[in-house]
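Tokens in:
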């Protein structure tokens, strides 16, 4: 074994093993921190859902309390049959306005007298029903501002949740109840919107263990949960489903009523990143090993090099090359040996002066040549670096353009915020109207001189509560506008999950409602509800959004009415299970002379007004780079344009 090899192995042993142990410790710490971050996100999701439902229950009770002060409702309950018949349609329309304020979550509204008779109901099936035996009637009649049912109640229409609040006259005497009916599908809709575009699964159970919402299996809504009792889990813990699947879950009750909120995250969300960290650690460790080995070889070479130089010079002298000068380098012993060899050759060199001069001339020429080669290499390296820098800047500019194009579609989300903000603002309008009515009644009592202490206390109590509701709704509107930033971030994040093709397309159409309603264009869908893929829903939404915008801007530029047809089917493409989507419009189509250029960046037929030239280029880039898919233009389709693109049912990691 040579000296250089021995030194190399020693340096590897001394340097690589500590570095390997240190990187292993860092990898374990990284994995532990990742699990903690996932658990923190799981707890945050649970807290957000709990807050969502607590706010919803509180908001519903407050709005219903405010609506119960509407004078028309009080007069309708106090009136006789003749009065009720004469005012039936007007009061019915006012009840429908209560639904309109929150039409997503309320099914029907009714007025009940103190005996539980359904005097008027926006649902024809429940009209003139007797509701005195239900808990929500008894508890709502005795409550101060209202009662929200803790569990599903069976009625003639199925199973539903009920909310009731007492209606009082000006003296504070109870006359009847204002009652809401809410189907569990509305609770499911709230949960779906709260956790949309996330990997979290969740379910909501009422106080009797009935399933109100279930993202994993919506078909179970309304059924009783198999277990009689669920243990609350404050910190994330591993659970196992009946099918043997592992997941981490947190479970807690609402603050308002004894509903149970269960939020979970699949094991794959944890293990995939940990495996990625492990493989990255192996790659980094391999690189460290190679770098350490090269450094050890270099250091060993530097140590042995002086000895080799002396050995080489000695061999040259032994072969008759007396002009060779032994370098005095290395350790003390090596330098002493070199000086002895130089003294031995001094006499010989004095006799070959002419040869020495020629040798120096040769060395000078070689030095100039080396200098020239070094300069050429430096220039080549400099030019190469300039080309690499220019290419990198071009790639970064293209990526920035793609990013800007993606961010442009976020404007469609603004329309969705309007409805969310409308609810608290509508509540404030109702409360303000109620407060105005109370003030007029108070002024009337003051002027007539018939005011009692109870009237003053009731007036002050109502004013304080109305003020509290106004403040809460203003805070709620501010909170909704602040959270819109987070919605935009989620829309642009790359998050892979299993999603429904039909649902995603419908969501895109909804976000583009503000654009579509300006025209008379129609969109027809032929997509099976059960068709799901495991891919990037954000990227898929971007593709559909750009295609629809292309049709509106380019395809229908000269048409007031157009039709878009989007269909999807499952197929096997190149031996791989895939989804084939067929997008067609009856617009002006794509001319043959530009069909080969439409996927090029910055190519547009409307550069003079709205065209950026990045639409189809962005679609092709997303499908091929992010979603492992493809797209092609059917040039034989007429009239209009037809694009056929495929994406796999499941991405290959």
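Residues out:
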């Amino acid at each position: 074994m040579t000296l250089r090899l021995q030194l190399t192995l020693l340096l590897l042993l001394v340097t690589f093993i500590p570095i390997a142990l240190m990187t292993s410790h860092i990898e374990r710490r990284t994995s532990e921190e990742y699990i903690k971050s996932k658990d923190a996100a799981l707890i945050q999701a649970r807290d957000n859902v709990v807050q969502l439902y607590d706010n919803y229950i509180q908001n519903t009770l407050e709005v219903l309390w405010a609506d119960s002060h509407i004078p028309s409702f009080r007069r309708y309950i106090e009136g006789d049959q003749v009065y009720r018949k004469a005012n039936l349609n007007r009061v019915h329309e006012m009840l429908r306005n209560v639904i309109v304020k929150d039409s997503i979550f309320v099914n029907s509204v009714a007025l009940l007298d103190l005996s539980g008779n359904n005097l008027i109901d926006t649902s024809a099936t429940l009209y003139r029903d007797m509701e005195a035996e239900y808990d929500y009637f008894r508890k709502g009649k005795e409550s101060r501002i209202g009662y929200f049912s803790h569990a599903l109640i069976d009625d003639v229409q199925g199973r539903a949740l009920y909310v009731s609040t007492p209606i009082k006259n000006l003296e504070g005497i109870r006359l009847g109840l204002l009652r809401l009916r809410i189907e569990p599908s509305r609770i499911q809709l709230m949960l779906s919107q709260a956790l949309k575009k996330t990997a979290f699964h969740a379910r909501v159970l009422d106080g009797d263990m009935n399933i109100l919402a279930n993202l994993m299996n919506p078909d179970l809504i309304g059924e009783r949960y198999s277990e009689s009792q669920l243990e609350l889990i404050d910190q994330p813990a591993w659970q196992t489903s009946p099918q043997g699947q592992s997941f981490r879950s947190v479970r807690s009750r609402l603050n308002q009523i004894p509903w149970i909120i269960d939020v979970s995250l699949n094991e794959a969300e944890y293990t995939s990143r940990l495996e990625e960290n492990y493989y990255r650690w192996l790659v980094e460790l391999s690189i460290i090993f190679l770098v350490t080995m090269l450094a050890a070889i270099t250091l060993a070479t530097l140590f042995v090099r002086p000895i080799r130089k002396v050995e080489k010079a000695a061999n040259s002298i032994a072969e008759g090359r007396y002009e060779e000068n032994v370098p005095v380098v290395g350790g003390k012993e090596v330098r002493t040996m070199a000086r002895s060899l130089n003294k031995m050759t001094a006499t010989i060199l004095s006799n070959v002066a002419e040869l020495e001069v020629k040798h120096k001339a040769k060395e000078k020429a070689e030095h100039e040549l080396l200098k020239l080669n070094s300069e050429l290499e430096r220039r080549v390296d400099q030019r190469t670096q300039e080309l690499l820098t220019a290419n990198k800047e071009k790639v970064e500019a293209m990526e920035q353009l793609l990013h800007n194009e993606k961010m442009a579609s976020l404007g469609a989300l603004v329309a969705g915020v309007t409805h969310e903000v409308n609810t608290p603002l509508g509540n404030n309008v109702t409360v303000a109207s109620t407060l105005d009515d109370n003030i007029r009644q108070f002024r009337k009592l003051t002027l007539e001189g018939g005011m009692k202490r109870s009237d003053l206390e009731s007036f002050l109590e109502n004013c304080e509560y109305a003020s509290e509701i106004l403040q809460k709704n203003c805070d709620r509107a501010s909170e909704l506008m602040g959270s819109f930033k987070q919605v935009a971030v989620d829309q642009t994040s790359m998050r892979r999950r299993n999603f429904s093709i039909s649902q995603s397309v419908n969501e895109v159409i909804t976000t583009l409602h503000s654009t579509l309603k300006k025209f008379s264009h129609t969109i027809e869908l032929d997509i099976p509800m059960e068709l799901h893929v495991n891919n990037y829903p954000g990227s898929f939404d971007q593709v559909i959004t750009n295609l629809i915008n292309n049709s509106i801007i380019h395809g229908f530029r000269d048409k007031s009415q157009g039709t878009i047809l989007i269909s999807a089917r499952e197929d096997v493409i190149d031996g791989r299970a895939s989804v084939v989507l067929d997008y067609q419009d009856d617009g002006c189509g794509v001319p043959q002379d530009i069909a080969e250029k439409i996927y090029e960046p910055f190519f547009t037929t409307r550069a003079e007004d709205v065209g950026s030239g990045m639409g189809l280029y962005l679609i092709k880039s997303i499908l091929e780079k992010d979603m492992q898919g493809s797209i092609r233009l059917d040039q034989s389709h007429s009239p209009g344009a037809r694009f056929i693109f495929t994406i796999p049912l499941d991405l290959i990691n």
